[in-house]
Beta-xylosidase
Amino acid sequence: MLLRRLWTVAAVLVAAAGLVQAAPAGSVRAQATYNNPVLWQDFADIDIIRVNDAYYYSASTMHYSPGAPVLRSYDLVNWEFAGHSVPKLDFGAKYDLSGGRGYVRGIWASMFNHRKSNNTFYWGGCVDFANTHLYTASTVEGPWQRHATINKCYYDAGMLIDDNDKMYVAYGNTNISVAELSPDGKSEVRSQQVFTTPSNIGTLEGARFYKRDGKYYIFLTRPANGQYILKADNPFGPYTLRQVLLDLPGPIQGGGVPHQGGLVQTQNGQWYYLAFVDAYPGGRVPALAPVTWTSDGWPQVQTVNGRWGATYPFPNLTPRPVKPMIGVDTFTGSALGPQWEWNHNPDTTKYTVGNGLRLQTATVTNDLYSARNTLTHRIQGPSSTATVALDLSAMRDGDRSGLAMLRDSSAWLGIKRDGGRNRVVMVNNLTMDGNWNTTNTGTEVAGADFAGTRIWLRANADIRPGAGRQAKFSYSTDGVNFVPFGPGFTLNNNWTFFMGYRFAVFNHATQALGGAVTVQRFELSTP
């Protein structure tokens, strides 16, 4: 986990203060209000469920591995990392950065649910617009295992487990269908188109499937500014359509309309809608709003002055301590915590965790986008700082190691080792085209000799939505005094890469394998 040591109440309070602005400093007791976004990190395509008194939140990860993270909360506001539903992107060599690349593919808009009859969590997703892969586990922490592969794409799917234990999947784009799965959840029994989106609406997708008071509901998004819902007496229809929201102003200045996501009912009978807000360059972040139902069974999002509220009354739920989403990792455990995801599948023979994270070079390349074993961490918004301490003593000539702002337009601060000596450098202008092919491997814009074997690298990222936001780099020889280095790096706020910027720690070779660095410490902090 992010904090592997036994954390005290004080640590929990720091987390609460950092993640929920309305939380009184020094308290995990029930709060009067909460602020949106409830979590300012990139967790898109939300599927949310409740199991007893715990809430679970599944999200998209595209090409990052492990995939499909699961977050946990007890109050819908304070969240912690719990696990990943897809331990490895086992869908072809391109997800290993071998013979291809999987950028903007992989895990997206998937389904997540829990089946009481066998106490099993189910995750399912369509990969490469081809097959739908199902994974199961008895706890969200895992181990998760491949349950089945269905030779069909359940596009943007949502799963319903009915009162009679039958499993249904709603899916599709514009034409919405429902499939019934076999009792063991390994195959399809029946599938039928149940709805065609009217042309005046355009596109509906992002299905979530619910049952309430004997009625069936398919919750659909109009990307990226609307939400609609279908209602029927039978899983296979006929369905009636109603608009839930359209062009509703969101709670983040400069951000988009809250949409997609899912509905959840608390153990006390209240309903909430957890949507995401487009907030690039940081990505898509969750916003929570209460929901009421009309007398004839339609959901209504509760707004504040005609918009999605920046603040709402705190849910009638008792907060419990959760592990902070920010803090320090010294990599003392036997495995990486679930806050970490690799860029594509890693070469597991080239890293170890224990007394720090030792990253051996795993790829010989001049292209960071093609280098294996680049480890990523989400950025905490609206701004945060990543600081990494590296032991450089095992680097070899041609090696490149550092801390990057990673996306389709990237920059990094780190060490180049050539001719038996180290230099600290800033490199920017690492770019991809619209097909996610590398168009530039970077330009060194600042450099200086570096004689030491230990360095602290720092990146401060402003990810408030909008153009012109910057990351700024600095480094230190003692971990205390930091020297600004290189020009500010302007972040790309285009949405088409889908995932937002991440902090990334890397070590790759340009000449030959054999070198290594040890990541002794990583800290994510907020102002």
In short: The longest strand covers residues 438-450. Confidence is low (pLDDT under 50) at residues 1-27. Residues 174 and 202 are 7 Å apart (CA to CA). The first helix runs from residue 9 to 19.
